[in-house]
TrEMBL record:
PANTHER family: PTHR47234, TONB-DEPENDENT RECEPTOR
Membrane protein topology class: Multi-pass membrane protein
The keyword Membrane belongs to this UniProt entry's keyword annotation: yes
Keyword Acyltransferase in record: no
Transmembrane feature ranges: none
Family statement drawn from the similarity comment of this UniProt entry: Belongs to the TonB-dependent receptor family.
Domain TonB-dependent receptor-like beta-barrel: residue ranges: 366-890
Name of the protein: Iron complex outermembrane receptor protein
A GO cellular component entry from the record: cell outer membrane
Subcellular location: Cell outer membrane
Alphabetic keyword roster: Cell outer membrane, Membrane, Receptor, Signal, TonB box, Transmembrane, Transmembrane beta strand, Transport
Length: 922
C-alpha cells in the first residue's frame, strides 16, 4: 500500500473547503437524521449511531468481563490480543522507579504509544515516571466492578486526543447512573497450592435518583482489592527440574549467614554459634530465599462518585470523582556483608561526582575478630528480617465538573478538572556509608546477637523518594449538523483544551547526599502550560461512501508544538460488506522528566558485559568443582561478567522534539451470514524521533566506538581471588583481561525509530437455539508481521523481531458462551505462538540455534514452545437479586513451556485456579 501521507496543510485545506461548502446547506438539514439516537464512540468527537462506526474498535462488555473472570483492570487489559505485556507491572515493583503501578502497551509501542481514557477524558499521570522518563497512567487506580464497558480503538488517534494516541486508545467507561445498593465479593486461589494466586476483592455501590424521572442521579462506589504474597522459598518445591538445572542458585544457600563465616585472607570457617542444621562441610549457610517475595502483596482501595443534574430539558450538569489509595510491599532478601575491600560506586546527585565506598573488615581487637589481622565476616543481618523491604504507595485523584447537552443547536461537552497523583517509595537494605562503617568497626553492632532497632536503622536507614504529578484542565467540544450531502447529514465538531502540568520526583536527602551505598538519586522537576484546538468533519459523500477528516494542533506555550491530521474512509458497496481505511499522523509530547530540570541516575541490572562474560562463565564452571563455598562463589563470579550492575546517569534535554508517527490501516467488515460477522484490519505504524538514551547492550557491543561512554575500573582483588581459586581447582589460568564497568553518563535525545505491522482479526457469531437458549462464539487474534527497531550504529533498521523471544507472531482467543434461563456457561481458549529462544538478532550467541547445539540443547528447546490454556466459566441468576459465578482458569492444567536460559523468570506454577464470585443488588 502507499506510504505517502497527507500533509497537515492539505488536510486543513480539505476541512476548511468542506466546511465552507456545507454552511450554505445548513438550513436543509434532515429532521429525520436529527431524531436518530446518537452516541460518542471512542476515536471521534462527533455523535453517531453505532452502525456508522467504521474504525477498528473492540468493545468489551460487562458480561464479557465477568466471563473472563478478571479482578482488576490490569487483568482485563491483559486479555487483549494486542497487549504485548511489555509495559510496567506492579508485580516487578521491587526493581522499579515507579513501584506500585501498572501500565499498558499496545502493538509493542510501549507506555508512550498507548493512551488510556476514563469516560472519554485523560487520567492523571502517576506520581513517578517509568524508568525516570515516561509519564503514564496507573491502570491499577481504576475500580473494575463499576466498569460498564471498555472500548479499544486499534488505530492512531492523536488528531482526536493529542499526545500518546499512537498505537491505540483504551477508553474505560463506567456506569453513569446507578440506583439501589449493590454488593460484590470474589476470591480466588490455585488448586495446586492454596497460597498461589490467592487474591480477593469486594465492593459496595450506592445510588439514588433517576435522571429522566427525577432530574438527578447520585452514586458512590468503593472497591477493595488484596493480592496475596508468598516467598521464593515457598515455591522452591514447585520449580520444575529443567528450571533448577538452569538456575542452580535457586536450590543453594549462602555463606553470608548468621552468625557468619570468616573468609577472605583465611580459609572459610564458620563463626562460633552456627546452628548445627546450618553447618555444611564446616561452613555456616543461610537460606536467603525465605525472606524475599516471589509474588509481592498489594492492598488497594479505589472508588468513584458522581452526580448528574438536569439544568433544563437540554442541559445536564455533572461531576465525577475518581480516587485510589494503593500500597504495594516487596520484601527483599536480608542484607549481608560483603568481602572487605569490595568497592561500590555510584553518583553523588548533588555534586555530580562519582562516589565510592569499600566494605569494612573487622579490625584487629574487634570482639568478633579472633585473628591478629583484619578479617572479613560474611554475615547476614537477621535481627529483623521484615525491615528489608520496598514499599510503594500512592494516592491518585481526578475531580471533574462539567455540562453536557444541547445549546444553540450544538451538542456540547465542557468540563474543568483537577487531577493528580502523590507517590512515595520507601525501603531499607542498603548500608549508610558512615553509619554502617562506624557501627561495624566500633563494635556498636553486636554480631551473633539481636541488636536494637536503633542500631539497625543507623546502619540501614530508610531511604527512597517522593513524587507528584498535578494537572488542571479545561476543555470544550461541540458538534452539530452543518448541511446535507447525498449520503446524509454533514457533521462537524470543534473544540479546545487548556492544561497546566506539574511534575516532581525527588529522592530523600540521605540519597541525594550520597550516604546510601550504591544508590544514586533523582531530582527532577518540570512544569508547563499547553493548549490545543481541534476540528473533525464527517462527510457522507454518497449513501455508500463516507469520509472523516480531523485536524488537531497542540502547543506548549514557549515550547514545541505538533499538528496532527487524520483521514478516514468507509465504503459500503453492499449491506454485508464494509471496506475501511485510515491515514493519520500521531505524536508523543516529550515528558516532563525528559525536558525538565535536574537529572537522574540508576543502576542497570542483569547486563551482559561482552568483555568479561566468557571469562566469568569459565570461572563459574571451574568453581563449581570445588567445595560448598566455591559453588556459592561460582554464581557470583558468573554474575560479575554475565549479569552485571553499574550506575548510569541521565539529564533532561529542553531541546527535544515530539516523537512522530505515520499510521495506516486498511480493513474490511463482512456480514458472512445473519449470524456471523468478521473483521480483518491491516495496520502499519512508523514512529520516528523516539526519545531515549543509547541502548546499554548496543553500547557495550560497540565499545570500541563508544569507549568514552564506558569507563572501567581495574581488575578487582575479588576477580584475582577467583582466578587463584580456579587455578587451584583446575590448573587453568582463567583471568579477566579488563575490569568491571564503572558507569555511563547519558542525556535524552531524539534517537530511534520503530516500525510495526500486522493484522487484527475479529469473528463474532450469535446463534438462537430455541428452547436450548443462545450460543455465542467469537475469535480474536493479533498476527504480527513486523517489529523493527532502529540501529543507530548501523544507521538502519535491525532484523525483524517478530518470532523472537517476547514477540510471538500470533496471540489469539477463542470465546464461547451458552445461556439458557438462569444459567450461563462459557469458555476461553488462549493461544500464544512459539518463539525463538534468543531475544534478538544480536542476542548472546549461546541462544541462537548454533549456540544451542554447542551447549547441547535440543532443537525443540532452542525455541519457547507455544502456550495454550483453557478457562471455563459458570453463572447462575436463579436467586432473587443474586448472581453467583465461578471461573476455572487453566482448566486442563497446561504446563509452562521450557525457557532454556539461565536467569529467566520463574515459570508459571499456579496450575488450575478457581475463582468464585457473588453479587447482590437491592
Amino acid at each position: 500500500m502507499s506510504k505517502h501521507f497527507p500533509t497537515p496543510t492539505a488536510v486543513a485545506a480539505a476541512l476548511l473547503l468542506a466546511s465552507l461548502g456545507a454552511q450554505a446547506q445548513e438550513q436543509a438539514a434532515s429532521e429525520t437524521d436529527k431524531s436518530l439516537e446518537r452516541v460518542v464512540v471512542t476515536g471521534s468527537n462527533i455523535k453517531r449511531t453505532q452502525a456508522e462506526t467504521s474504525q477498528p474498535l473492540l468493545v468489551i462488555s460487562r458480561s464479557e468481563i465477568k466471563a473472563m473472570g478478571a479482578m482488576t483492570v490490569t487483568d482485563i487489559l491483559g486479555n487483549l490480543t494486542d497487549n504485548d505485556h511489555s509495559a510496567l507491572s506492579d508485580l516487578g515493583g521491587a526493581n522499579s522507579w515507579a513501584s506500585g503501578a501498572s501500565g499498558v502497551s499496545l502493538r509493542n509501542l510501549g507506555l508512550g504509544g498507548t493512551l488510556t481514557l476514563l469516560n472519554g477524558r485523560r487520567l492523571t499521570s502517576y506520581g513517578f515516571a517509568d524508568g525516570l522518563q515516561m509519564n503514564f497512567s496507573n491502570i491499577d487506580a481504576i475500580p473494575s466492578e463499576l466498569i460498564e464497558r471498555i472500548e479499544v480503538l486499534k488505530d492512531g488517534a492523536s488528531a482526536i486526543y493529542g499526545s500518546d494516541a499512537i498505537g491505540g486508545v483504551i477508553n474505560i467507561i463506567t456506569k453513569q447512573d446507578y440506583t439501589g445498593v449493590g454488593l460484590a465479593v470474589s476470591a480466588q486461589q490455585s488448586l495446586r497450592q492454596s497460597f498461589l494466586s490467592r487474591d480477593k476483592t469486594g465492593s459496595v455501590t450506592l445510588g439514588k435518583g433517576s435522571l429522566e424521572a427525577d432530574g438527578y442521579n447520585v452514586y458512590g462506589h468503593l472497591e477493595m482489592y488484596q493480592r496475596g504474597a508468598y516467598k521464593n522459598s515457598d515455591i522452591r518445591p514447585l520449580l520444575p527440574t529443567w528450571y533448577t538445572d538452569l538456575n542452580p542458585s535457586r536450590l543453594q544457600k549462602s555463606s553470608g549467614s548468621f552468625p557468619g563465616n570468616y573468609t577472605g585472607s583465611v580459609p572459610t570457617t564458620a563463626a562460633p554459634g552456627c546452628a548445627k542444621e546450618n553447618l555444611v562441610n564446616g561452613i555456616c549457610m543461610y537460606d536467603y530465599w525465605k525472606d524475599s517475595d516471589a509474588r509481592p502483596g498489594t492492598d488497594r482501595i479505589t472508588g468513584m462518585a458522581g452526580a448528574r443534574f438536569k439544568l433544563n430539558n437540554d442541559l445536564t450538569a455533572f461531576t465525577e470523582l475518581q480516587f485510589a489509595d494503593i500500597r504495594a510491599t516487596y520484601h527483599t532478601a536480608v542484607t549481608r556483608s560483603q568481602a572487605a575491600g569490595l568497592t561500590s560506586t555510584w553518583y553523588d546527585s548533588l555534586k555530580g561526582e562519582l562516589q565510592s565506598w569499600s566494605w569494612p573488615a573487622l579490625p584487629v581487637g574487634h570482639p568478633n575478630n579472633p585473628y591478629n589481622f583484619p578479617v572479613t565476616l560474611a554475615y547476614r543481618y537477621v535481627d529483623n528480617p521484615d525491615m528489608f523491604k520496598n514499599v510503594g504507595s500512592s494516592f491518585d485523584h481526578r475531580l471533574i465538573f462539567g455540562v453536557q447537552g444541547t445549546l444553540a443547536g450544538w451538542d456540547i461537552d465542557a468540563a474543568i478538572g483537577d487531577m493528580g497523583s502523590r507517590a512515595s517509595q520507601r525501603q531499607q537494605g542498603l548500608p549508610d556509608r558512615f553509619g554502617y562503617t562506624d557501627a561495624v568497626v566500633s563494635g556498636e553492632y553486636k554480631f551473633g546477637q539481636a541488636n536494637p532497632q536503633s542500631v539497625l536503622d543507623k546502619m540501614f536507614p530508610v531511604f527512597g523518594s517522593d513524587g507528584h504529578y498535578k494537572e488542571q484542565f479545561a476543555d470544550f467540544k461541540g458538534s452539530r449538523q452543518i448541511g446535507t450531502l447525498p449520503g446524509g447529514p454533514l457533521m462537524v465538531a470543534v473544540g479546545a483544551e487548556l492544561r497546566h502540568q506539574d511534575f516532581s520526583h525527588r529522592s530523600m536527602d540521605d540519597v541525594l547526599q550520597a550516604r546510601i551505598v550504591g544508590f544514586s538519586g533523582v531530582a527532577i522537576d518540570g512544569r508547563r502550560d499547553l493548549g490545543a484546538v481541534f476540528t473533525e468533519l464527517s462527510a457522507p459523500i454518497t449513501k455508500t461512501l463516507e469520509a472523516t477528516l480531523a485536524l488537531r494542533g497542540d502547543q506548549v506555550f514557549n515550547g514545541f508544538g505538533a499538528i496532527t491530521p487524520k483521514l478516514q474512509l468507509a465504503w459500503r458497496p453492499t449491506q454485508s460488506l464494509l471496506l475501511r481505511g485510515t491515514l493519520t499522523q500521531g505524536f508523543r509530547a516529550p515528558s516532563l522528566p525528559e525536558t525538565g530540570n535536574g537529572g537522574a541516575s540508576w543502576f542497570n541490572n542483569g547486563i551482559r558485559d561482552p568483555k568479561r562474560c566468557d571469562t566469568a562463565t569459565a570461572l563459574r564452571d571451574a568453581l563449581r568443582t570445588g567445595n560448598t563455598a566455591d559453588q556459592s562463589d561460582a554464581e557470583v563470579a558468573y554474575a560479575s561478567g554475565c549479569s552485571v550492575s553499574f550506575p548510569s546517569a541521565v539529564t533532561p534535554n529542553p531541546s527535544l522534539q515530539p516523537e512522530r508517527s505515520n499510521n495506516a490501516s486498511l480493513g474490511l467488515v463482512v456480514q458472512v451470514t445473519d449470524n456471523v460477522s468478521a473483521t480483518v484490519d491491516y495496520y502499519a505504524i512508523q514512529r520516528r524521533n523516539e526519545i531515549g538514551v543509547l541502548d546499554i547492550d548496543q553500547v557495550l557491543a560497540n565499545e570500541g566506538a563508544s569507549s568514552p561512554l564506558v569507563p572501567r575500573d581495574p581488575v578487582s582483588v575479588q576477580d584475582q581471588l577467583w582466578s587463584q581459586r580456579a587455578k587451584q581447582l583446575t590448573g587453568q589460568d582463567i583471568a579477566f583481561a579488563t575490569g568491571p564497568i564503572r558507569t555511563m553518563k547519558l542525556q535524552y535525545r531524539n534517537l530511534y525509530k520503530t516500525r510495526v505491522a500486522g493484522f487484527d482479526v475479529d469473528v463474532q457469531s450469535k446463534w438462537g437455539l430455541g428452547n436450548w437458549g443462545k450460543l455465542n462464539v467469537g475469535l480474536e487474534a493479533n498476527i504480527q508481521t513486523k517489529l523493527q527497531y532502529w540501529d543507530i550504529y548501523a544507521n538502519a533498521y535491525g532484523q525483524n523481531r517478530v518470532d523472537y523471544s517476547g514477540v510471538p507472531r500470533t496471540n489469539a482467543i477463542l470465546k464461547t458462551n451458552w445461556s439458557r434461563g438462569d444459567w450461563s456457561v462459557g469458555g476461553r481458549v488462549n493461544y500464544t505462538a512459539s518463539t525463538k529462544l534468543a531475544g534478538s538478532e544480536w542476542d548472546d550467541p549461546n541462544y541462537q540455534e548454533s549456540g544451542c547445539v554447542t551447549r547441547g540443547v535440543s532443537v525443540d528447546q532452542c525455541r519457547v514452545a507455544s502456550w495454550t490454556s483453557t478457562d471455563l466459566w459458570l453463572q447462575y441468576t436463579g436467586l432473587k437479586n443474586w448472581t453467583l459465578s465461578g471461573n476455572l482458569f487453566n482448566a486442563f492444567n497446561e504446563q509452562p513451556a521450557i525457557y532454556h536460559r539461565p536467569g529467566s523468570g520463574v515459570p508459571y506454577l499456579d496450575g488450575r485456579i478457581l475463582k468464585v464470585s457473588a453479587e447482590v443488588k437491592f
